[in-house]
Design a protein that fits this description.
This protein is mostly helical. The chain has 3 helices and 2 strands. Strand 1 (about 15-20), helix 2 (about 25-30) and strand 2 (about 40-45) form a beta-alpha-beta unit.
Length: about 70
Amino acid sequence: MHDGIHAEKAGVPSVTICTDSFINTSKSMAAMWGTPDYPVIFTPHPIAQLNKDQLRARAEEIIDTIVSILTGG
């Protein structure tokens, strides 16, 4: 969150990806840094046990949203 928010403030399009157990934390941090609408994409928690193929599948589920946010679409 911190790095993404600061990149965004510096003019670099960014988005943060978190697991859904961090919804409240990410919203609080964005508000604390003065960017309550900072884009965060959530994926189901946990991810630690996922193998490479499962992580790829998760990424494929959210890639269109990531691209849309980063390109202003």
